[in-house]
Every structure is written in C-alpha cells, then in structure tokens.
Design brief:
Layout lengths: L9 H12 L2 H4 L1 H9 L3 H25 L6 H9 L1 H34 L6 H17 L8 H20 L15 H12 L19 H30 L2 H4 L5 H10 L1 H26 L1 H8 L18 H17 L2 H29 L15 H16 L2 H20 L9 H5 L11 H13 L16 E5 L6 H11 L5 E8 L14 H17 L3 E8 L2 H12 L3 E5 L13 H8 L3 E6 L8 E5 L6 H15 L2 E8 L5 H15 L6 E7 L3 H9 L4 E4 L7 H6 L5 H5 L3 E6 L3
Parallel strand pairs: 1-2, 1-4, 2-3, 4-5, 6-7, 6-9, 7-8, 9-10
Antiparallel strand pairs: 5-10
Helix pairs in contact: 1-10, 3-9, 4-9, 4-10, 4-16, 4-17, 5-6, 5-16, 6-7, 6-13, 6-14, 6-15, 6-16, 6-18, 7-13, 7-15, 8-10, 8-12, 8-13, 12-13, 16-17, 16-18, 21-22, 21-25, 23-24
Length: 733
C-alpha cells in the first residue's frame, strides 16, 4: 500500500488551519454575539480560544499517533468503540454541515449587497448556490479547493486593513456598558462563538501528509490559533467601538457595515465581495469534509452500505454528498442563524469533550499501538480543563442544543443497533475499563467465572500452535523494552532454569487487518537472532515466537493459561497499574491472571553484582527472599535485605526485626546481609541507598492518592526515585 507523501510544510499547514477558521465566525457571527454580551464580545472570543486550546493539543497528539484520514471520528471510534463511534460520526457530520449552512446564510446576506437582492429572497440564493456546490462536489472539481488559499489571503488582508483604519476610530462611548448581561451573558456568548475556532483542528485529518508532524502539526495549530484569535479579538473590538450596539446586534454582515462606515461605499462593496468569496469557499470545503463522515461510517459498517457507494466515473461518494446537501437545505429553510450557530457550537463542544477524554483513556490504558510522537503538555490537567469547560459551555448554550444532542445520541443508538451492531471492532475503553465503584465489590468467585467466560472468547493470530505447552516463565516482548535480552535474563533468573516462552506481541487497532501485518518483519528477525544468541551463551531453554493481535491483554492472558506458567515477566515504566475508571494492560493482567507477576523497570544496568531487597514485613517474606536469592545465584551477586524503620523505633523492636531478618536470610545460598535504615522518609532513603546497588526488588505497591485510585496515573514513587533497575514482584501463589 502506498503511503501519502509528506509534502506539506509548516507554512502550508498554518494556511490550511487558518482557512478552516476564517469565515462565518467573523463575517457573520460578531453582531449576533454582541447582542448577548455587548462590548465585551471581544473578551468572549478570547476566552473561547482558551477553551478550545485543550482540544487542539489533544488532537495534535492523537493525529501523530493515528495519522490517517477520518480525523476525530477515527480517534473517538478507536477509543470508545463503534457505539460512540456512530454517535460521534453523526455529531461531527452535523457540526460541519451546520457550520457550512451558517456560512451559506451569511453568503446570501453579503451577496444581497452586491446584486441588490431583497432580504426576503436571500435564502433562495443560498439554496441555489448550495445546489451549485452539490454539483461541484459530485463531479469532483477538486481544483476549486485550491482557490481557497487565495480567498483566505484576501480575507486576511481585508481584515487587517479594517483593523489598521478602524482602531483609531473606536469611540469609548460605544464601549459602555462593558457587560450587557453580566457574567452569565459573557459565558453564554463564549459558548455561542466557540464554533468560530473549530476549524483549527481540521489539519489533524491530514497529519499523514505533513512534514515532521510531531513538530509542525502542533506548532501550526498554535500559531494559526494565535493569529486568528488576535484577528477575532481586535476585529470585534473595532466593530463594537464603531457601530452602535442597537444596529450591530441584528447585523449578519458586520464586516461590510464597518468597512462601509470607515472607508465609504466603494470600500464597503469590496468588503462584501470578499465576504461572498470567503463564505462560499467555506461552505464548499464544509460540504467536501462533512460528506466524508457518512461515507467513512458506511465503510466501517456503521451506516447502510449504499451510503458508502462511490460513483463509477467521478469516484465521489454521491449518496453521502446528496444527503449532506439535503440536510443543509433543510437547516437553511427551517432554522434561523442563531439556532444554527448554537447547534453547530453544541455538537462541536461535545466532540471536543470526547477528544480530550480519548487522550486520557489512550494514555492510561497504554494501548500498545498508541505511540504519538507529540505529547500534549500539562497532561492530564489540560484535558480535564477541556472536559469541564466543555460541559459548562454546553449548559450555557441553553435547553435547545442539549435536547438536540440527546436526540442525536438516541438516533445514533438506533442506527447502531439496526446497522452497526455486527461490527467486530471494539474500542480501547471496552478492553480495559471497569465498572466504576462496583468493580471494588466484585467477589473473587465472580471474577473467576468471568475469566472462564472471557477466556473462551480470546482470539489471537499467528501463533500457529507453536507455543510450548509448559513453561516456567512467559516473557511478553512489546517493543518498548530498553533491552529485550535483559528482560529474558531476568525471567531466566527467576525461573529455576525451566523453559522460558518469549513472545513478541504486536497490538494493532481493531480497524487494522491482522493479515496485512503477518509478513516477515526485519526487527522481529533481529530480535529472534539476539534471543537465540542469549540462550546459547547463557545455556537457557528459551522458545521464541511472534504474534499480531487486536487485544494485547487477552492475548497475554491466554498465553499464561496455555503455557501454565508460574511467572509472567514484563517490562515496566514505573507507572501505577490500575484504577477504578481505566486500567492499562499491566493493571488488567494483575487483576486477572493466576500466575505470579514480575515487572522490570530497566534503568540501563547491565551487570548485576549487588541486589537490594526492600520488604514490608509480611507472610510472603520467605518467598520474596527465595526469589531474590535465585536471582543472585544466576548473576553471582550479593543480597542485602533492607528495612526502613522510623527514627523513633525502640531498641527492643529494632533487635527483634534484625533477628527475624537474619532468620529469613539463613536459607539463602548467596552472600547476604541485613541493613536497617532509620528514616521517616522511606522513598528518599531507598533512593539514596539504591545508588550503591544494581537491582532493587520490591513487593506490590499500595495506591496512595485519589488520582491513582481513579485513573491509575500516578508514578510508583519507589521505582521512580530508584537509582538502579527495579523489579516489582506480585506473589499470588
């Protein structure tokens, strides 16, 4: 399969992003927005830009992880699965067609200035040009889209000139009162103008064509958002400072009005012409983009097949284009501009909330295929801000948009259960999410019954029955290991020299055909060669296989069952394993598998000569010491048993602990010693002590804060602060 050529540089991406925003948001909306909040409308535009920032950053991250066509629909569908994929696809489709309809209404108003149309007939002209756009899109006249760059440039120049000549003429008297309807009016206006910035994320859909996307995509979004914010804020300031509010609040052609006021009739006509070109160009690109959502959903079996048909001659999705234009015509005929703007904003806010949630879920579940080259800053607080601000904006948009969202949710559910219920894909959330709160009360018996049912449905590909039937240790290699050989060595050290099953597992989204990835992979060939060399040099019994799967955790679960292994040994980044709301593959496995679990955080140490075992006193201390001793034997290392005790511990208790520790070490065959460190800060103490050792062995950690409990986002404090490599042991047997 040919890949898209990465031909778009930073300048091109900025131009595309600005083009996605520049249109009805400034040529039509400011007057209607000013009616809600007065001269403070410029502040509403500024705050709207801040509220959309999390979505822009989140989509930048998602796009570098999934640089494919489909954009937001793909991100949400892969995260949540086909049910929410169906709902989001409809929401995205509606938000775009509503915005395009809004542009056509404004187009008609600006056209009426040039050709002297009676205001009552502007809708008919809007509908006529909608038909023209329909024809253009069916016949595939894509070169028309190239005109957009010229149109955007003309718009920017025109708006810049309005700023230059309009700012000096701002009248302070027109700027009072600043907040016409108080804070409530300001926030309502913020929600109302939100749609003006929605186009900033459009470039995410073409991430596969951008040069150096990890840099250029987020940078282009930020620069274009900054440029447009400056234009929107200052233009609206000029509008309210030059046009009396009573005239402005019902004006859907404010750019013409202010240009006519500042420069006279001739300049006003030029501004009207620019408005016509900008809005028709925006409407055309909107039809082009929105019609692809029903088409993509039909391809994904979430809508009837006929909506995914492509014209044999023109190679365009005719049915999807026609349905989109019919929907736009109904919007233009039956809805006024305020309702159109509110609905467009509502659906876009809803989609951006889901985008922010998607980043949190994909990060927290650690889906193996999710490897963005750009990571959103201030995670997860940036995303949480985007979610909460989005919910507030939805509330302030009013009752009608909320009802519309509920209706679309209902329609989406009906469509899914009628058409898309047979879709074989599942989202990441379904694999790793828990039932909030109730999960805490699951009985052990009930868990085992669920595992039996789940195990029957596990499917893996490309194993070909080559796995050993018995293995002491299973070592999944996921491609994120600093040294796969070191991980296999750790497995061998734990293993009592029984057979080791090493298996390279590649997880791909459900939307990807496994067969397409079953060809020979040079990286896997290299890995197999290195594991084989290690096996010979260390005299180990290692079997190596490779697998491709849609479900990483279930595949590893099946491996542990199929091989009847005693230990599962995996690489680890030191992060908390599990939460109530979401978990990652490690967190899921910790709660589901029956074997013991070893997590290895590789800090680059390759020669293990000194091992530090830090334990909380407990009934499995003997088991931990036995494993630590086994590892020391394998590497020829010495063992130190460490206890961190409070500084105010009494001598009797101290002596008792030292005696019991020596008893624990009495059966160790390796050179061993007891170390008791008095400190009230155990994390700091272990951090300093670990500098003298090569491997730190710890037991299962305890969750210690609400964020960790809910999302599993916290770092394991001991592992994160350790100066050497860390091995976390979870002993179940």
């Amino acid at each position: 399969m040919k890949k898209l050529e990465r031909s778009l540089n930073l300048t091109s991406v900025i131009a595309i992003s600005i083009g996605g925003m520049l249109g009805s948001g400034i040529f039509v909306l400011p007057g209607l927005a000013a009616a809600k909040t007065g001269p403070s409308v410029w502040l509403a535009y500024l705050l709207a830009a801040i509220c959309i920032l999390p979505a822009a950053l989140s989509k930048s991250e998602l796009a570098t992880a999934m640089p494919s066509s489909g954009g937001t629909y793909v991100y949400i569908e892969r995260t949540f699965g086909p049910i929410l994929g169906t709902i989001s696809g409809l929401g995205l489709w509606l938000s775009l067609l509503l915005k395009s309809s809004f542009a056509l209404v404004g187009f008609g108003a600006y056209l009426a200035i040039i050709v002297n149309i009676h205001p009552g007939f502007t809708k008919y002209f809007s509908l006529f040009f909608l038909f023209v756009i329909l024809v253009l899109n069916i016949f595939g006249v894509k070169k028309v889209g190239k005109v957009q760059l010229v149109v955007v440039s003309m718009s920017l120049v025109s708006l810049t000139l309005i700023l230059i000549f309009g700012l000096p003429k701002v009248s302070p008297e027109l700027l009072d009162p600043f907040l016409l309807n108080g804070n409530f009016g300001l926030i309502s206006t913020l929600a109302f103008v939100y749609i003006s910035y929605a186009g900033v994320t459009k470039v995410a859909a073409i991430a596969g064509e951008i040069k150096n996307p990890s840099r250029n995509l987020p940078l282009a979004m930020m620069l274009s958002l900054t440029i447009i914010t400056i234009i929107y804020v200052f233009i609206t300031f000029v509008l309210v400072g030059n046009i009396p509010l009573e005239s402005l609040k019902s004006d859907i052609r404010p750019i013409y009005t202010v240009a006519n006021l500042i420069g006279g009739t001739y300049i006003g006509y030029i501004a009207a012409g620019v408005g016509v070109l900008t809005l028709i160009s925006m409407a055309n690109s909107g039809v082009l983009a929105s019609s692809r959502f029903p088409f993509a959903m039909a391809i994904d079996k979430l809508l009837p097949d006929f909506m995914g048909k492509v014209h044999s001659k023109y190679l365009t999705p005719v049915v999807s284009i026609v349905i989109t234009c019919i929907a736009m015509a109904l919007v233009i005929i039956f809805l006024d501009v305020v309702k159109i703007a509110k609905l467009a904003s509502a659906f876009k806010v809803m989609m951006f909330i889901l985008v922010n949630v998607s980043v949190i879920i994909l990060r927290e579940t650690s889906a193996q295929w999710y490897r963005p080259t750009y990571h959103s800053p201030l995670y997860p607080f940036m995303q949480i801000f985007g979610i909460l601000s989005g919910i507030i904006l939805l509330i302030f948009l009013g009752f009608m948009p909320l009802i519309a969202i509920l209706v679309i949710v209902g329609i989406g559910l009906v469509i899914y259960f009628l058409v898309g219920k047979n879709a074989s894909r599942t989202g990441v959330l379904r694999k790793y999410s828990h039932r909030p709160a109730l999960y805490l009360f699951y009985s052990k018996k009930g868990r085992k019954e669920r595992l039996k049912r789940k195990g029957k449905n596990v499917k893996t590909i490309n194993l070909d029955g080559k796995l050993v039937s018995k293995a002491g240790v299973v070592v999944p290699l996921l491609g994120n290991e600093n040294s796969p050989e070191m991980l296999v060595e750790i497995g061998a050290a734990i293993n009592k020299k029984e057979k080791i099953q090493a298996i390279n597992i590649t997880e791909v989204p459900n939307q990807t055909f496994l067969e397409a990835l079953m060809e020979d992979n040079p990286k896997i060939t290299s890995l197999e060669r290195r594991i084989s060399s290690l096996s010979k040099s260390r005299n180990l019994d290692v079997d190596f296989e490779a697998a491709v799967t849609h479900d990483l955790s279930n595949t590893i679960y099946q491996l542990s069952k199929q091989t009847s292994c005693d230990w599962l040994v995996m690489s680890w980044n030191g992060r908390a394993h599990n939460g109530i709301l979401v978990s990652n593959p490690i967190g899921w496995l910790l709660t589901h598998i029956d074997s013991d679990f070893a997590l290895f955080k590789d800090n680059g140490v390759r020669y293990i000569s000194r091992v530090l075992l830090a334990l909380r006193p407990g009934r499995k201390d003997k088991n931990f010491v036995a494993i630590a001793d086994r590892i020391c034997q394998f590497y020829g290392a010495s063992l130190t048993l460490l206890h961190i005790v409070p500084e105010d511990i009494d001598d009797v208790e101290l002596e008792k602990m030292e005696t019991s520790s020596r008893v624990l070490l009495s059966k160790a065959t390796s050179k061993s010693e007891v170390m008791i460190n008095m400190s009230n800060n155990s994390i700091d103490a272990i951090s300093k002590i670990s500098a003298e050792y090569d491997l730190l062995i710890l037991g299962t950690p305890e969750k210690d804060n609400w964020l960790n409990v809910l999302f599993g986002t916290g770092k394991d404090k001991f592992a994160d602060s350790s100066a050497c490599s860390v091995l976390r042991l979870t002993m179940k047997n």
